[in-house]
Design goal:
About 45% of the residues lie in helices and about 20% in strands. By secondary structure, it is of the alpha/beta class. The chain has a 6-stranded mixed β-sheet, with helices on both faces. The radius of gyration is 17 Å and the shape is globular.
Length: about 260
């Protein structure tokens, strides 16, 4: 079954052998994160937004917490105000990450979801207990989940117009990933997806890296992580601990999702 699934992805998405090796390793976790593209309304396209939000104790700073909560809520408000046709087919998945992964919600349709897409507040976003940052392992799983959903959208629904946005908001560097312990381990898949998206917006993915600077991580450190991962510099946003700067990161993610900024 797994080999059949990987062959279907390979045939549909035309990923390199290096990329497929990464997808194969990430697939067990990816299958837990994916949603069902058939649950979204509309028959003409699907838009997938997957978000990873840092949940490590270094984020337990009042301005960081405020920025994440108000930014995520403002992003959902912006989607609400978007023309219905522009958000038709939109599916959103959100996860916190530390040394593991904590689900806010797996991919759900934004319009008429079976359960409401959670809005963050001070009870949901409480980054106090994590012991490390497993960014690469969680990013690989999310990317593989998106690749899987795009394949299912094309093969099962006959929909070829898709848009995939994967966004990371973090203030630190990876120190806990085990399956993909370095950025180099994940880079081939990211480069493959980015290049495919440049050639055809219905292929690959837009990958957004949002880095929060503090005493432990400066702008240069964040940009090095993004560069090593293969993320385009124009899709990297760096801000400080001020809540306003963190909210701006969610505004960027929103604009990339709706296609207002590429």
């Amino acid at each position: 079954m797994k080999n059949d699934l990987l062959k279907a992805i390979k045939d549909s998405e035309n990923l390199s052998d290096e990329s497929m090796a990464i997808v194969a390793k990430a697939m067990p976790a990816a299958q837990q994160m994916k949603g069902d593209p058939a649950t979204a309304i509309g028959t003409s396209r699907r838009i997938f937004l997957g978000m990873l939000i840092d949940y490590t104790p270094s984020m337990n700073v009042p301005s960081k917490i405020q920025g994440v909560i108000t930014g995520q809520n403002a992003m959902l408000d912006a989607f609400e105000k978007t023309n219905r046709a522009d958000k038709s087919g939109l599916m959103i998945g959100q996860w916190f990450f530390d040394e593991g992964r904590r689900t806010i919600n797996d991919f759900l349709p934004f319009v008429n979801p079976p359960i409401p897409i959670p809005r963050l507040d001070g009870q949901i976003y409480t980054p106090v207990n994590g012991n490390g940052t497993a960014l690469y392992d969680n990013l690989s799983s999310l990317l593989a989940a998106c690749v899987l959903m795009v394949m299912e959208t094309k093969e099962n629904l006959g929909i070829i117009e898709t848009r995939t946005v994967v966004a990371v908001i973090t203030d630190g560097q990876d120190n806990r990933s085990k399956v993909f312990p370095s950025a180099a381990d994940l880079r081939p898949l990211i480069v493959d997806l980015v290049e495919k998206n440049k050639a055809d917006p219905n292929q690959g993915a837009i990958i957004v890296y949002c880095g929060i600077t503090d005493k432990a991580m400066d702008e240069a450190g964040h940009r090095l992580i993004a560069r090593n991962l293969g993320i385009d510099d124009k899709r990297v946003m760096i801000g400080g601990v001020d809540a306003k700067e963190i909210r701006a990161m969610f505004t960027l993610i929103s604009s990339k999702t709706t296609g207002q900024a590429d």
